[in-house]
Structures are given as structure tokens and as C-alpha cells.
Write a structure and sequence with these properties.
The protein is an alpha/beta fold. The chain has ten helices and 13 strands. Strands 2-1-3-12-4-13 form a six-stranded mixed sheet, sandwiched between helices. A five-stranded mixed sheet has the order 9-6-10-5-11. The longest helix is centred in the first third of the chain and has 21 residues.
């Protein structure tokens, strides 16, 4: 009988210790110890296909190690990416710069904020019917993005080449109405930014955002006649950001995302993949 009781107590103790060892006490989002499990957090993000979604794909395994499942949904146009975040369908987006975000907030009554600057895409002037800036004829037509912030940026790039002059007070709010000198009588054609790479031959020159140039099969580093200086103030002003609803910029999963995008691994990927068409901002 003594032997039986001893064996029973020993077995009970063994089962108790085994049960304790199988429980997980790791918090959500932390890296679990070998053999342990942790709750997975789902982080949904909207992104433009190129380069944003491509960059995010490289981030997925980094976040997976922290228990974060990054779900990427691509969108072909800009405004909807802010709308889905504002409505809670997505947790964040990655496609825009701060001036665009601020303009969107003003026009739509939203309250979206930046959670971090990630990279800069120099805007470029691309040939169409005219092959070079020097060959640009009188009365030429130049396609530019029609959204307020990117149009101002495009006009400033044209002004930097001496093609037009703009009222200095217009700054980042410049429109064709702010052109004070137009010696070649250039016609500015305002188009949806995503459409410009598809209509290159319809216009003499085309001013294109690098992400849409890449999507259109162009190589900004080689095909652009001239681009913004990546070392200029434009790099900070027009840095592409991760955007979220106000109050969520410090959520642990969002902070982890931004940190991963700033990692050396991702910066190396951007530099090696895009050859200066996309410039990481640490």
C-alpha cells in the first residue's frame, strides 16, 4: 500500500510540473522563447503597389518574429487609402507624404497623423513627344499631377529648370495661377497622378511621382531627364510616411512597424532594389 501511495504522489507531482511548463506568459507582440507560443496580433495596412507594398513584404518576416501578422492590401489610387484608415478598415497606410496628408485632412475632416517618415521618392521630369528640355518647343504641353500638393511640387521642379517662374509666396501651395513668367507659353495639363505614365506620348514632358513611374515600367534613375535633389529640403518635406488615425501612432504594433522599416536590413533592400529612385530616411 505504501508503495502504491508513493507512486501516485510522484505521478501527480510530475503532471503538475508538466502543466506549469506548458503555459505561455509572453505578452502579445513579444518574441516567445523556444517551444512557447504567443498570441498573434494582426496589423492591417494599405499601400501603393510600388514601392510601398514591395518594401512591406520585406518587413513581414521581421514583424512575424515579434508576433505581428502584417496584412498588406494594395490600392491603385491615393484618396481611398486614407479613407479606409479613417473608417477603421485598415490600421495604417503607407503611400503619402505629410503635405498630402494635411491637405486631405483639411478637405475631408479627417484626423490622420504620421507615425514616422520612411523614405523619399524624388519627383522627375520625363520625356514624351519632346526628348530633352533643350528641345522643348514654344506652346509645349506638360502633364503634372492634379492633387494640390504634388502639383505644387511639380511646378516648383519646372521652375528650378528655368522653364517657368512662380510667385515666391506660393511655395508648396503653388498652382498654375501662381506662374508669373512663362516665356515658352507652356500649357500645364493637370492629370490624375497615376495616369501620367500611361499617357507619356500625348504630352511633350511629364512630371511623375517615382512610385507611379516605377509602376509604369520606368526607371527613375535612368529615364528621368531631371529629378529633385534627394539631399534637399524636399527629402524631409515630401518623405513618405506611415499614417494612422490620431491617437494610434504609439500603438505597440505601429511602433514595431516603423522600427522595422527603419532597420538596416530594410534600408539596404531599398538602396539595392531602387538605385536612388527611392531613398530611405533613417
Amino acid at each position: 500500500m505504501k508503495k502504491f501511495l508513493t507512486l501516485a504522489l510522484s505521478l501527480a507531482l510530475t503532471l503538475s510540473l508538466a502543466a506549469c511548463g506548458s503555459s505561455s506568459t509572453e505578452p502579445s507582440g513579444s518574441t516567445p522563447a523556444s517551444g512557447e507560443e504567443t498570441e498573434t496580433v494582426t496589423l492591417k495596412i494599405a499601400a501603393s503597389p510600388t514601392p510601398h507594398a514591395e518594401i512591406l513584404e520585406q518587413v513581414k518576416p521581421i514583424l512575424a518574429l515579434q508576433g505581428i501578422d502584417l496584412v498588406i492590401t494594395t490600392y491603385s489610387d491615393y484618396p481611398i487609402q486614407n479613407t479606409v484608415v479613417d473608417e477603421g478598415e485598415e490600421d495604417a497606410n503607407y503611400f503619402q507624404h505629410t503635405p498630402y496628408l494635411e491637405q486631405f485632412n483639411v478637405e475631408n475632416g479627417t484626423d490622420l497623423v504620421s507615425a514616422g517618415k520612411i523614405h523619399y521618392e524624388p519627383m522627375g521630369i520625363y520625356p514624351g513627344k519632346t526628348a530633352t528640355l533643350e528641345d522643348l518647343p514654344d506652346g509645349a504641353t506638360i502633364a503634372v499631377p492634379n492633387d494640390a500638393t504634388n502639383e505644387a511640387r511639380a511646378l516648383q521642379l519646372l521652375a528650378a529648370q528655368g522653364l517657368i517662374e512662380i510667385d515666391p509666396e506660393a511655395g508648396l501651395s503653388a498652382t498654375p495661377k501662381d506662374i508669373t513668367s512663362n516665356p515658352k507659353n507652356l500649357e500645364i495639363k493637370e492629370l490624375e497622378a497615376a495616369m501620367i505614365p500611361n499617357t507619356l506620348e500625348e504630352y511633350d514632358l511629364n512630371v511623375i511621382n517615382s512610385n507611379y513611374a516605377l509602376q509604369g515600367g520606368l526607371n527613375p534613375a535612368e529615364d528621368a531627364l531631371v529629378s529633385e535633389d534627394a539631399a534637399s529640403d524636399f527629402a524631409q518635406t515630401y518623405a513618405n510616411i506611415v499614417a494612422v488615425k490620431a491617437g494610434h501612432e504609439n500603438d505597440p504594433a505601429i511602433v514595431a512597424l516603423v522600427e522595422a522599416l527603419h532597420s538596416q536590413e530594410i534600408q539596404d533592400f531599398i538602396n539595392e532594389t531602387y538605385s536612388g529612385s527611392v531613398v530611405p530616411i533613417a
